[in-house]
Amino acid sequence: MKQDFNFNNELSGKTALVTGGTKGAGKAIAERLSNAGAKVIITARNPPEISDDNHYFISADLSTATGTEKVVEEVLATFGRLDILVNNLGGSETKAGGFAVLNDEDWELSIQTNLLAPVRLDRGFLPKMLEQKSGVIIHIASIQGRLPLYESTLPYAAAKAGLINYSKSLSNEVAAKGVRVLTVSPGWIMTSASEKMMERIAESSNITKEQATQSVMDALGGIPFGRPAQPEEIAELVGFLVSPRAGYLTGTEFVIDGGTIPTI
Questions:
Q1: Contact (Cβ atoms closer than 8 angstroms) between residue 183 and residue 139
Q2: pLDDT tens track for 141-179
Q3: 79-115 pLDDT, tens digit each
Q4: What angle (nearest 5°) sits at the alpha carbon of residue 203, between those of residues 202 and 209?
Q5: β-pair partners for 186
Q6: Residue of 56, 150, 156, 248 with catalytic role
């Protein structure tokens, strides 16, 4: 079957939502989809530092059911449909110290943010996608779903492992109805937050920023590629996966970690 693709405008006419879309990989993903012609909606608790007329912004706390309901209602009321959902929001705010220092609140917050937020948004938008008989859902997970750093991110890693499993299950349920569901599991991404963390480590340990970066890579067991990912590299993979070029892909987890995970 021969198909002709216009890579520069391949998402024209599509409406996309990117959660956590004001910073880091989320911001890069939003820009990538916008450059491909999509109408892009972004969500975060706080508006972006620099407003972008190309993106429609919704302020919401997606770690709560109320926040996800607000986003679903506003998107459908304003745009009438959603073609692409990128569940990018995630992160860990738990303290270091391993299992013993974590309480129920730490676990609940991580699960609400990293697992239940995507589940709730999927539940809100899937009926419309199924009615359209088309749609793409991307779950941004993490290699920590398979390679947990127990010292400081145990709840986060467990929630991301659950997201990977859930994503596969959901894909099996909706594939025949025209909706594709995929998982992207990045390794370490060098965002502005990561840059600041490297500066703090360097200052506190009296080492260079480059040495601080190497120390983190060593803690991960090494990155064969020799560096963290850039947000734009994650965005490029997502841009491909939501495009017509990836029309036969569903249910797959795409690991983009520079070779960090040492097993097959």
A1: yes
A2: 999 999 887 666 889 999 999 999 999 999 999 999 999
A3: 999 999 999 999 887 766 778 888 899 899 999 999 9
A4: 30
A5: 256
A6: 156
Residues 66, 118 contacting (CB under 8 angstroms): no
| Mean pLDDT across 179-202 | 90
C-alpha dihedral, 176 to 180 to 185 to 191, nearest 10°: -170
Map out the domains of the chain as residue ranges.
7-189+230-256, 191-228
Please say if 156 is a catalytic residue.
yes
In 3D space, the residue among 65, 87, 91 whose CA is nearest the CA of residue 16 turns out to be 87
d(CA 97, CA 157): 15
Q: Are 238 and 29 in contact (CB under 8 A)?
A: yes
pTM of the model: 0.93
* One-letter-per-residue 3-state SS of the chain: CCCCCCHHHCCCCCEEEEECCCCHHHHHHHHHHHHCCCEEEEEECCCCCCCCCCEEEEECCCCCHHHHHHHHHHHHHHHCCCCEEEECCCCCCCCCCCHHHCCHHHHHHHHHHHHHHHHHHHHHHHHHHHHHCCEEEEEECCHHHCCCCHHHHHHHHHHHHHHHHHHHHHHHHHHHHCEEEEEEEECCECCHHHHHHHHHHHHHHCCCHHHHHHHHHHHCCCCCCCCCECHHHHHHHHHHHCCHHHCCCCCCEEEECCCCCCCC
Could you tell me which CATH class the domain 7-189+230-256 is placed in?
A: alpha beta
Cα dihedral across residues 76, 131, 163, 256: positive or negative: negative
Chain-centroid distance, C-alpha 255:
12
B/e letters for 51-72, b = 16+ CB within 10 Å, e = fewer, are ebeebbbbebbbbeeebbebbb
